[in-house]
Recover the amino acids of this structure.
């Protein structure tokens, strides 16, 4: 199987798995009338999985799903799941006694700085460094096939 | 918004009057801002000669203009008024609306930019429904996508006109109705004259105003609160859940925000439309970084002002707010010089106008280009053919822009809650109807036209029915489950199921 096809298939499987997990979280909440204990975990994991899956699909289309990019996206998934997981798992300390990290309560700090700041510059710079303006994707294929019947403007 | 209230998006939309802010200085800042926009419109009008100029800026944009324009179109007035208000009332829950931006600025370029640019270059595609039509060789898919976009954007534009009316009323004392019509007239003037070409260059100016206003407001907010750590300690002493990891809305609401605003970001047609305007593919290399830097600066205000006002209320410096949307005006009145208040209000107007301009262009293209193509015999999503058709399309595009703006301005005069209800459809409807067919379909050869149409119809039906049931109180999903999230999940699964089993004949 071509690496790009394998990447697309992997991205689709991840996307379906992630979206299905989100769907299960919603279904469980609707059936019970309140979120079951596992629902936030399923929603956090599913959202993380679906988000990374979209990056995998895009990288496969651009023919840039190298081992380096795969490792980067794997790390992104770990960051998302670890930050969400820590926020769900850590026991809250009530009141003003909770420790601060960089000006915010610890659990919020993990989410904000972990998810909000870590990928903020790493992703766009990674995109720029792996960008290949000559790579072709399925859009090109569709265009070539159909352009025979429609002259450009 | 509590967990039991579900994923009500109504608080995201400005639907009530703002306190009167400023005086002569604020008014002068606003007038100066509008004059600059007018000058840009005149400049762009002289350069708009064809439908390609009007709808895709002549496919001439470079990296910086693309990035800043996309940022300005992404952030509506909500980022400056509703966002700080939501932060004031819900605490950290509001963070999860903007938190996905750390991923989505790159995700859009990563997933959509190149395939859309290829279609624009080789097929002459000028619209997002046109791209869907070309991808699947399906006029029906193009027509359904255009229909979904039109339904969603009418309410979206109306809510933004309403917010603009409130802003102009707060600054000039125009009254709401006159404020709506003046605001609509300004946006309409530069959109009709220069189309998206005026829009994107106005966006650059507007984006700069937004960033300056945001950074300055953030600095004053931090100073008034005694720094981030002091603000946190003050609030934690009074309300333990406010700065908990999920805020007062709870984990399900916060994570649903992240899901819908994260994955759904790929389906915002006014942003995706920008990818059709790039001069060449090389312009995308640093586009995500430009957009990320611009958006980070412009979101500082969103992140800080609401919590700073909360801390001031806890300390008794500021009285408790009657409405959460008063957070920003109260902050301006209590802590910043009037000159800065003028810049911030210009920033609010800039955010609203840049978003509306983009939506007007998308809507006009759907009416004049995509819906007619859905019913004629030409290949789906194909290019404008010849100078005569281009000139004709340009004239019809201007007329459609006027009609949409007038319709939205009239809708904006309905009671605030009804306007907000229409606006609720916007983001969720874009997400559930366009993410599968556009974002997945352009990256998966196995996707089919039937899958695209089935997913669009599924997203459209579930969002409209679900949000209507919720609005009229007939049925609300429990505990933070959003109809838009449910619709997005269903549409994605329908799309994949249909693409993998029904037919493979439309593989590119």
């Amino acid at each position: 199987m071509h690496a790009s096809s394998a990447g697309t298939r992997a991205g689709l499987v991840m996307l379906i798995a992630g979206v299905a997990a989100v769907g299960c979280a919603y279904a469980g909440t609707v059936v019970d009338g309140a979120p079951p204990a596992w629902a936030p975990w399923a929603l956090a994991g599913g959202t993380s999985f679906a988000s990374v899956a979209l990056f995998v699909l895009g990288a496969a289309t651009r023919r840039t799903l190298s081992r380096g990019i795969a490792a980067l996206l794997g790390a992104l998934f770990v960051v998302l799941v670890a930050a969400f997981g820590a926020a769900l798992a850590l026991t809250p300390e009530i009141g003003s006694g909770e420790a601060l990290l960089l000006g915010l309560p610890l659990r919020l700090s993990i989410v904000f700085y972990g998810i909000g700041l870590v990928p903020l510059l790493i992703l766009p710079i990674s995109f720029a460094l792996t960008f290949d303006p000559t790579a072709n994707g399925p859009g090109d294929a569709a265009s070539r096939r159909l352009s025979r019947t429609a002259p450009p403007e | 918004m509590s967990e039991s209230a579900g994923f009500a998006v109504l608080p995201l939309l400005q639907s009530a009057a703002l306190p009167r802010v400023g005086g002569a200085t604020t008014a002068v800042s606003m007038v100066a801002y509008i004059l600059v926009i007018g000058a840009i419109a005149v400049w762009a009008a002289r350069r708009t000669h064809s439908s390609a100029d009007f709808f895709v800026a002549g496919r001439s944009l470079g990296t910086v203009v693309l990035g800043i324009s996309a940022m300005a179109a992404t952030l509506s007035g909500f980022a400056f008024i509703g966002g700080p208000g939501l932060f004031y009332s819900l605490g950290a829950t509001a963070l999860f609306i903007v938190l996905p931006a750390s991923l989505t600025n790159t995700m859009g370029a990563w997933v959509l930019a190149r395939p859309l640019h290829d279609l624009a270059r080789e097929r002459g595609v000028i619209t997002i429904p046109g791209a869907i039509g070309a991808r699947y060789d399906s006029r029906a898919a193009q027509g359904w996508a255009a229909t979904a976009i039109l339904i969603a954007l009418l309410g979206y534009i109306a809510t933004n006109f309403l917010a603009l009316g409130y802003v102009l009323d707060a600054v000039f004392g125009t009254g709401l109705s006159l404020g709506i019509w003046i605001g609509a007239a300004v946006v309409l003037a530069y959109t009709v004259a220069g189309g998206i070409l005026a829009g994107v260059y106005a966006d650059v100016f507007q984006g700069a105003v937004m960033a300056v206003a945001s950074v300055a407001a953030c600095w004053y907010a931090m100073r008034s609160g005694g720094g981030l750590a002091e603000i946190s300690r003050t609030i934690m002493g009074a309300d333990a859940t406010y700065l908990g990891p999920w805020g007062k809305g709870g984990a399900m609401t916060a994570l649903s925000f992240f899901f819908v605003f994260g994955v759904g970001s790929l389906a915002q047609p006014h942003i995706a439309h920008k990818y059709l305007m790039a001069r060449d593919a090389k312009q995308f290399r640093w586009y995500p970084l430009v957009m990320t830097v611009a958006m980070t600066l412009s979101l500082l205000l969103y992140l800080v002002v609401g919590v700073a006002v909360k801390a001031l209320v806890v300390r008794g410096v500021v009285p408790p707010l009657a409405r959460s949307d008063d957070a920003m005006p109260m902050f301006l009145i209590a802590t910043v010089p009037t000159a800065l208040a003028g810049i911030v209000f210009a920033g609010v107007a800039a955010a609203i106008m840049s978003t509306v301009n983009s939506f007007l262009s998308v809507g006009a293209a759907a009416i004049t280009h995509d819906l007619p193509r859905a019913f004629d015999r030409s290949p789906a999503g194909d290019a404008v053919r010849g100078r005569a058709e281009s000139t004709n399309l340009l004239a019809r595009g201007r007329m459609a822009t006027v009609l949409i703006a007038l319709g939205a301005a009239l809708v904006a005069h309905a009671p605030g809650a009804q306007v907000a209800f229409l606006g609720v459809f916007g983001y969720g409807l874009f997400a559930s109807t366009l993410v599968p067919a556009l974002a997945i379909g352009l990256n998966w050869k196995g996707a089919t036209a039937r899958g695209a149409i089935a997913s669009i119809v599924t997203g459209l039906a579930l969002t409209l029915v679900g949000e209507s049931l919720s609005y009229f109180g007939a049925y609300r999903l429990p505990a933070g489950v959003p109809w838009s999230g449910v619709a997005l999940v269903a549409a994605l699964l329908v799309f994949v199921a249909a693409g993998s089993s029904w037919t493979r004949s439309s593989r590119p």
